[in-house]
Specification:
With about 230 residues, this protein is α/β, with parallel strands linked by helices. Helices cover about 50% and strands about 15% of the residues. Strand 4 and strand 5 (about 85) form a beta hairpin. It is globular, with a radius of gyration of 17 Å. It binds cytidine-5'-monophosphate.
Length: about 230
């Protein structure tokens, strides 16, 4: 059986970094489910599809031609959409905002469901998203809901964008994060919320290293007790 670790939470809570670090150190696979929703938005924009056109957006989600390839020079993962490398578009705020619009459409979510579940292959999977523990992997061995204050999340996002050489404005970022949180939490389809059996971890004021260590400790406990489902 594949051990699944679900990491959910709002934007800027550190899920991406924490998930990547955990997957690397455990030697497990990584599912960045947010990237799939971002890719649907990017593909829709490329084709000039109206964001109100549910049928076309669903077709895009179902037929998404995407490949995550490890760059030859190192560990860096590169994302190819329809044969084109699109990493420079993936992390922008426009892509994040478009993603949250398409992600509110139940048909789009349904079209991406099996693709996400297919990532669960041995030895294990770290699944990063909003509904990993509630919808995609309800039987996950460990569910973590990572959160942090809105202020801290906006600062982290700001730093992250700057480090990637992207332009960022703190105030605009804070507003965008809040709008996205609202859209993600209030939508009818798979709203952002902790699973009843999730461990809610508030990372405000806690460094990434410590968060990773805390989660690793829990996983070690699960693996050594043979509790893995
Ligand atoms: O995590 P990331 O910022 O890449 O996610 C972008 C958007 O995709 C989120 O704001 C959310 O609307 C959507 N998403 C989702 N379900 C997931 C992952 C992301 O609805 N499992």
């Amino acid at each position: 059986m594949t051990t699944v670790l679900a990491i959910d939470g709002p934007g800027g809570a550190g899920k991406g970094t924490v998930s990547k670090r955990l997957a690397e150190s455990l030697g497990w696979h990584l599912l960045d489910s947010g990237a799939l929703y971002r890719l649907v938005g990017i593909a829709a924009r490329k084709r000039g599809v109206d964001f109100a056109n549910v049928a076309q957006l669903t077709d895009i989600a179902r037929d998404l031609d995407v490949e995550f390839r490890v760059a030859e020079a190192g560990e860096l993962v590169r994302t190819w959409l329809e044969g084109e490398q699109i990493d420079h578009l993936l992390r922008t705020e426009t892509a994040g905002s478009d993603a949250s619009v398409v992600a509110a459409i139940p048909e789009v979510r349904a079209a991406l469901l099996q693709r996400q579940r297919d990532f669960a292959v041995p030895p294990g999977l770290v699944a990063d998203g909003r509904d990993m523990g509630t919808v995609v992997f309800p039987d996950a061995d460990l569910k973590v809901f990572l959160t942090a204050s809105a202020e801290e999340r906006a600062h982290r996002r700001y730093k992250q964008l700057k480090e990637q050489g992207l332009s960022a404005n703190l105030r605009a970022l804070r507003e965008e994060l809040q709008a996205r949180d609202r859209r993600d939490s209030e939508r009818a389809a798979a709203p952002l919320k902790p699973a009843p059996d999730a461990w809610v971890l508030d990372t405000t004021g806690i460094g990434i290293d410590e968060v990773v260590a805390m989660i690793r400790e829990r996983i070690a406990g699960i693996l050594s007790s043979g509790e893995s489902k």
